[in-house]
Automatic annotation (TrEMBL):
This is Pyridoxal-dependent decarboxylase conserved domain-containing protein. Keywords: Lyase, Pyridoxal phosphate. It holds the Pfam family Pyridoxal_deC. InterPro entries: GrpII_AminoAcid_Decarb, PyrdxlP-dep_de-COase, PyrdxlP-dep_Trfase, PyrdxlP-dep_Trfase_major, TyrDC_C. The lineage of its organism: Bacteria, Pseudomonadati, Pseudomonadota, Gammaproteobacteria, Lysobacterales. GO terms for biological process: carboxylic acid metabolic process. It comes from the Bacteria.
Length: 656
């Protein structure tokens, strides 16, 4: 059986990841235990060595006191209850989990997190986290290198990145930064700052190319630095009071009659965090324009047409969003072509930012990166796979370095604990516009260095207090497994190979099952997420096919009322919608399944779309070479049995 999946981690490579995880069976328990105990003891010695002359404040007799014992027993009782309750958790670590973008945790990250927790660093600033704030800034540089941003802090236009609670807040930060940069040139004009070659009118100022706006900000900073302290204070205050951050959107627009609330253009497949972001920022959900996809990618012709219309209507655009790894299908938008469209629109006078939401797919870049940081050619990458990377996917990932900002979730494909999203921007100078205190740049009159500047992280990030343990976890993981194809990329490669094996097996399954069900992989996977559409033979109604898939999925999801062991596999579902796929694609898929498109159009909520199974192939142990087990095969055998049973009961129900 195993030999049917020759690609999925060839024998020689497989031991490279043996020490990476606790393992599905807890195989590396001794290693984890040793590390945790070692560093816990180390923490205790640290306490004792702070001022060894201070005597212990809790007496050695204390542990025999009834109050002590009562507290201990209450604590134990509650902890045991917690531990027992947690046994109902979703087994993310198991190769039987094929649901969402989460899997086992990398040991370096898990141990770094556990070991840092008792020190309780607060990454709001260096004062509260002398060690881990620096690690967070370094994580930004590690990720910047992975996607092709400049990552040398000695360069004035080095990138910058920081962690967030997740991709949602990183996307929010992208909106906030793009708006600050868009509106700043308008404020400079409003304040009447001399000597800067300001844009000729408000419209031009609001629609600069982000590079031009950044250069203008830089000129302003240099100009300011050359002023006397009194003049500097005066101008800083004047500009400050003309900024959108001071006036609010309504106040700002009231002063600039030519301007309107700018639009955000994103594909229909965009994550719902974009809707939240527009609400949160006060731009209003109506200013999020969703663009159609074609062949599972953002339709750049539609994007270009929309931008042309905006330019004619004098409707400003804040940013276009490309998705690298859509939440539902794992597909990749054509970032390279979106960049070309952005350049053309900017040249025509409609400058705006380009952000990539790579919350899900950001780490795919590891397989494109050499150890020295250079980019591998598509042929070099393709030699490791059967079909990956499609030309469009390669070009999209390779183009990341030219975008303005990127969201990446280490807690997804980074195999790190939740609470770690990341926001990156190409040129760190723009973060001046986020700072709460205007004088952060200048200490006296000397500009601060990069690392020194970001020690007051709380000045720049959406959050305030936040965990330094998260930063330590991501930093240490990226040190143990650098973000190139030979190190971290081995894990990424694994997931892509598993998806390719899954796709091949799905085709075999479709052939074996054709008497009772039409099965289809609706589109080739861009990376490690494979969907499966199903329709019982003879059925032509979408509602009926949906009910069938829903009952399959019902046995593959968490149910706190049932013992975990009753579940054979965990999976997830998503839907195919005409507005996301385009009419032609939708028609092709419905046709291949033998479904009547008319039954989709007239349907109620929920059945105006096709429910499909969705599988994330992220677990490193889907193919167990040790015991010759393929959990991919086992999954399809399980599905086969379930479908046969379901079909039989459908047959009985249909009989007179
Ligand atoms: C997961 C995801 C998000 C949201 O990230 P959270 O970490 O859940 O906040 C945003 N965009 C995409 C494409 C995602 O996959």
């Amino acid at each position: 059986m195993i030999n049917e999946h020759p690609g999925a981690v060839a024998g020689a490579d497989r031991h490279r990841i043996d020490a990476c995880f606790l393992g599905p069976y807890g195989e590396n328990d001794a290693l984890l235990e040793r590390l945790v105990v070692e560093f816990l003891r180390d923490h205790v010695y640290w306490r004792r060595n702070f001022h060894p002359e201070d005597p212990p404040a809790i007496s050695t007799e204390a542990s025999r006191h009834p109050d002590y014992l009562a507290f201990e027993s209450r604590m134990r009782r509650e902890l045991h209850q917690l531990s027992a309750a947690l046994k109902k958790s979703v087994p993310f670590h198991s190769p039987r989990y094929l649901g969402h973008m989460v899997s086992d945790l990398l040991l370096p990250g898990l141990v770094a997190q556990i070991l840092t927790l008792p020190y309780n660093p607060n990454n709001v600033s260096e004062d509260a986290a002398p060690v881990t704030v620096d690690m967070e800034v370094q994580v930004g540089l590690q990720l910047a290198r992975m996607i092709g941003y400049r990552h040398d802090p000695a360069q004035p236009d080095c990138a910058f990145g920081h962690l967030t609670s997740g991709g949602t807040v990183a996307n929010y930060q992208a909106l906030r930064l793009a708006l600050a940069l868009k509106a700043f040139p308008v404020a400079l004009r409003d304040a009447g700052v001399p000597d800067l070659e300001l844009p000729e009118d408000d419209w031009c100022a609001f629609n600069l190319h982000p590079h031009a706006a950044t250069a203008l900000l830089d000129r302003y900073q240099s100009w300011l630095a050359a002023q006397s302290p009194a003049q500097r204070r005066h101008w800083r205050q004047r500009v400050q009071s003309a900024r959108i951050e001071h006036l609010g959107l309504a106040g700002f627009l009231a002063r600039h009659a030519e301007l309107r609330v700018p639009l955000v253009l994103a594909p229909v497949t965009a994550h719902y965090s974009w809707s939240k972001g527009l609400k949160l920022l006060g731009l209003g959900r109506a200013h999020l324009q969703l663009l159609p996809e074609r062949g599972m990618r953002l339709d750049t012709d539609a994007l270009e047409a929309m931008l042309d219309r905006c330019r004619r209507d004098r409707q400003p655009v804040l940013m276009t969003v490309g998705v690298l790894g859509t939440t539902e299908y794992g597909t990749v938008d054509p970032i390279d072509r979106m960049l070309e469209v952005r350049e053309r629109a900017s040249t025509a006078g409609l400058g705006h930012s380009l952000h990539v939401d790579a919350a899900w797919g950001g780490y795919l870049a590891t397989v494109l990166r050499n150890e020295d940081g250079s980019l591998r050619s598509r042929d070099e990458v393709a030699a490791d796979y059967q079909a990956f990377p499609a030309a469009e996917v390669y070009s999209a990932i390779a183009a990341l370095g030219d975008t303005d900002s990127v969201t990446i979730d280490p807690h997804k494909l980074g195999y790190l604990p939740f609470g770690t999203g990341a926001f990156l921007c190409r040129d760190h100078r723009v973060t001046a516009l986020l700072a709460e205190e205007a004088d952060y740049v200048f200490h006296g009159s000397a500009p601060k260095g990069y690392l020194e500047r970001y020690r007051s992280l709380g000045q720049f990030i959406p959050e305030g207090s936040k965990s330094g343990a998260n930063a330590a976890a991501v930093f240490v993981t990226h040190r143990v497994l650098p973000l190139d194809h030979r190190h971290f990329g081995q894990l990424t490669r694994q997931t892509i190979l598993a998806a390719e094996a899954f796709h091949r097996r799905a085709m075999v399954f479709a052939g074996q099952m054709q008497a009772c069900v039409a099965a289809l992989v609706p589109f080739a996977a861009d990376s490690n997420l494979v969907c499966l559409a199903l329709n019982p033979r003879g059925n032509r109604e979408v509602a009926e096919a949906n009910a069938f898939v829903r009952s399959l999925h019902d046995e593959m999801r968490a149910d706190p009322g049932q013992p975990l062991q009753l579940k054979q596999f965990f999976g997830s579902v998503t839907t195919l919608r005409p507005e996301a796929l385009g009419a032609a694609e939708m028609q092709r898929i419905l046709g291949a399944l033998g479904l009547d498109a008319a039954t989709l159009e007239g349907a109620d909520d929920g059945d105006d779309r096709l429910l499909i199974l969705r599988h994330t192939l992220m677990n490193p142990y889907l193919i167990d070479h040790e015991n010759g087990i393929s959990y991919i095969d086992r999954y399809f055998e399980y599905l086969q049995e379930r479908i046969s049973r379901l079909s039989a009961s459908r047959g009985r129900a249909a009989a007179p």
